[in-house]
Write a structure and sequence with these properties.
globular, Rossmann fold, alpha/beta, 8 helices, binds thymidine-5'-diphosphate, 5-stranded parallel β-sheet, 210 residues
Length: 210
Amino acid sequence: MAKKTGAFKAGTFVVFEGGDESGKTTHARWVATQRNCLFTYEPCADLNLRSLLLGTSNSDLSDRTEALLFAADRAQHVQNIIRPTLELGQDVVCDRYIGSSLAYQSYGRGLNLKEVFRLSEFATDGLLPDLVLLMHIPYETYLERLQASQLDLTRFDQETADFHRRVIDGYLKLAEADPSRWVVIDGTLPPDTVRQAVAAVLEEKLGWQL
Ligand code: TYD
């Protein structure tokens, strides 16, 4: 059960993290469907901040503004969607959470790691995930997949190679620092193999049979 300072939490909270194009959304959705539980994502739909945070026209957003907006989005997401669902005893699978702020706003942008963590701690009232699956792909794979992708570019896709490398390395450091909560999965493997690896981790760690 995750550490919490708020109300009683009964469901299990699983988060998928990873750099862009790592495939985490596909696998997170698959897990939620198999488990018949809530799939949700950040930045969430609740506050309508997605276009502000991801749109390419907001290139002058300051790093601190960006960190605060992601934290505000998370506060709303936890209060209105994640915590109420967990309290009903239902499991939640979330695409990105606190790890994204640590990887992108701290390792990527260079903001202080503890300060960025405290911001999310405040935003979520201390709600941590039970398990984080990190889909790891190197920068070169990200670039290949981005070039093949039909999706619109985000502000983050326009970042430098160095920025993306810092994010990817940052994620590995986060996983290394908290091995009881984080598991790294090789996202370069074929989708079926990744899916089997995800299912094996969820069975071993949580007893989920997908
Ligand atoms: P999105 O289009 O949802 O991509 P993905 O499918 O990869 O999640 O874009 C989310 C972007 O927002 C992604 O580039 C990472 C960034 N982000 C942060 O920088 N900090 C955060 O706290 C969160 C939740 C996302």
